[in-house]
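Why do we care about 3D structure at all? Because function follows from shape, and shape follows, mostly, from sequence. That is the central idea of this module. The next example makes it concrete: a single protein chain, its amino acid sequence, and then its structure expressed as tokens.
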Amino acid sequence: MEDLTERQKFILSLVVHEFTRTAAPIGSQNLVSQFHLDMSSATVRNEMAVLTERGYLRQPHTSAGRVPTEEGYRYFVGRLLRETQLPDAARRTIAHQFYQSRQDVSQWTRLAASVLAVQSRGASVVTAPRTEQLQVRHLELIATRGRQVLLILVLAGGEVQQRMVLLDEAVSQEQLSALADRLTRALQGLDEASIRAQLGQWTGLEASVVTWVLEELTQAETMAGGEVYMDGVANVLAEPEFSGSEDARRAIELLERRTLLRELLAHSALAHDAGGVQVVIGGEGIWEELRPFSMVLASYGAPGLATGTLGVLGPMRMAYGRTISTVRFLSGLLSDLVAETMVEEIPGSEEVNG
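And the structure:
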């Protein structure tokens, strides 16, 4: 990035702020009157011409004002944007909402998606936290009718797998509960490979249940990576630049596949940096589907144990300060929740943390 004079930086910031607000090209006279500048419109126009020449602004039409380019937004975010925090009142309100749902992983991931969408006025995406290797946390067996039993497998990251199984003969709920308790103690903290290596030690109904557990672990591993929660899609589709366009819908559908989120995080080396925030502007020349958009992304959780991703998708003229501060705050809050509700229950986590 070429360095700019202080006046050019100031004018670029004003253009970004005004275009974010109005979604209309910004003229020199508009800036002078709107912000009561102590310089003439001719001076502002000349500086805007220089910024256009250097690739930070563009002119959609000959008679129109200027709008920021991708490089203009990157310069603004990287060099000019001051770090901000959510207002104290908003932080307290959000923290209280999460406090009420802190024991329910699916509830607070949905809540995170909702809060992000409201605060950023964009489309939010939050992935459920998951362990790097799926491990058993808890097992339940519930008699339904006859020989049918509901197997509930809770994984160390909070994900829940369920399946109906058919026993060779009816077994009482008391016996099923005792069996589930024994197997929970035996399997807790073990991953698929560890359980498979010990499969020969079980016989009869125990062996059948352990086999079903292995099948559920295999299925969970082959899934796209756990639940993805989204909110605020209508916010993006309602933006004037996306009116009647399929671009926004295609990008949002793409985000529902966790593979893109993993690629984005891997590209920025944020996957092991909970609390760090990455801003992806215009797809960074890598993700063509994201070219009309910007994304603010962060990972959360406890690296090596349980981690997830959260982010916001919006037009390039998004309010970066507010969005970045919201994503950073929620990343920290969700990391605390992971530590409180999951990490303590994963065997061996004390050694990892200590």
